[in-house]
Amino acid sequence: xxxxxxxxxxxxxxxxxxxxxxxxxxxxxxxxxxxxxxxxxxxxxxxxxxxxxxxxxxxxxxxxxxxxxxxxxxxxxxxxxxxxxxxxxxxxxxxxxxxxxxxxxxxxxxxxxxxxxxxxxxxxxxxxxxxxxxxxxxxxxxxxxxxxxxxxxxxxx
Length: 157
What we know:
InterPro entries: PRA-CH (IPR026660), PRib_AMP_CycHydrolase_dom (IPR002496), PRib_AMP_CycHydrolase_sf (IPR038019). With 157 residues, the chain is an alpha+beta fold.
């Protein structure tokens, strides 16, 4: 599939639609060049617990965060509020070890399957998706595993 090197990102991912698992792909750097980062240079990254398939959180990655994640196997995101790389767990200790990373068919969303240590959410809950919505209203579906103040060193246990 060496012709992929000269394609636009959209053409690149369109060509992958007919690829099979036995086809060889271009080098990782070429594939990352085709990733559809948004106008801010970011791609949404959905974190999923690898064994239970529970969706833990969604965050953003820039190319540097994605490359670091792939190289170190420790998940790194890009913090839009702090405008810098954010290595999951650097403050709370609740790290994510990369098991697998996969792009969607358009190359504009990333799924990172991880082994999550403790809660993934800054609220101390396992998942950030704990507000369930329905026709009858909303409800909280889980309790915090850890007091968020303890996660970030604001209070002693």
